[in-house]
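Sanity check record (used in CI):
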Amino acid sequence: RCALESARAFFRGRHAAYLYRAGRNLEDGELSPACMADAFRCLGKAARAALCAIARHLRLRTDVFNQLLDDTPLPVNEVSSSELLVAYTHEQLQSGQTLMGCPSRSSMPQVDRGFVTLVASDYPGIEVCDPNGHWYLADGVSGPNNLLLLTGRALSHVTAGLCPISQYRVTNENRASLTFRLVPHANAILDCSPILAAGHCIRRVYQPIPASQFMDDSYAEEHAVSSHLEEPSESQGNFVSDPSLRSVLSDPLSGAFLEDAMVLQCGHSFGGVMLKKVIEMARCTICNGEVDPSSLFPNLALRAVATVVKMEDDRRLFHNAALRKRRKDVTEHTDVLKRTGSSKVCIIL
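Expected output for U-box domain-containing protein:
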């Protein structure tokens, strides 16, 4: 709330934007809106927590992506890779005129190149494209106490497409906003090894790539946007052409296994949050057929397979955790022996 109010006061009604990075020294005569350091720190913590939750949702370690991010706290004399954009615009903004990092109402759909983006604003005005190609107002209850989470290209790359890219556009120009982008550090290598180790299939397009090249490759960004727009939505959550077994047996919205799968009259099956959404809409999201809640019946075969795969997934996670604990114990024991041996040598000398 303080940062949004300071943005309005700082820009004093004119169209402007300010990009803040932790660790960057202000140039001579440069002024900064108030509360930027506090807002950067708070939004940074929230973005990292969201990234941990996404990792857990994918059955990965919550800290699996930490090595790709800036160190916390940030080392002295080092500028953060992540950034905070504070902007203020209003309705008098001329058609086609844009601010740095702020897409205009007439612009093409936008995507961010980082892991996740958090947006806080005083008024709603961001539409997001759903898997079926429909645009909806994502921040309808937007206010100082609400954050909008958008996923970026880097997250989609390191998860081999399991986390699709969020396409968004700004429809309300009369607003003050804070946009925090969680970005990988320049020396990071973006690869899908954690996803591969978790048993997911990986397409050839997801090859290891330096973060510096990934973030600066404007052609790749444009290609990613156009290819994503052209993808057909043939099934719920079908964002990759070669989905893994786990993705087929999981609810695309919640990630939960389809242990409650139900069959519709049209023959398509849903479960979890997607099932609730289909019932509320009274329409199948795949074939657009009408749905009668009283005609649903359990998909026993799909439920059985989902249960078996979930049990195997849990067993593998438990086994991997036990191996990591065993390696840690062995390493600590070896370190103790080394320190003990060094002490004995010193005494003998």
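Residues 249-348 form a domain with the Herpes Virus-1 fold (CATH 3.30.40.10). If this sentence no longer matches the regenerated tokens, the check is flagged for review.
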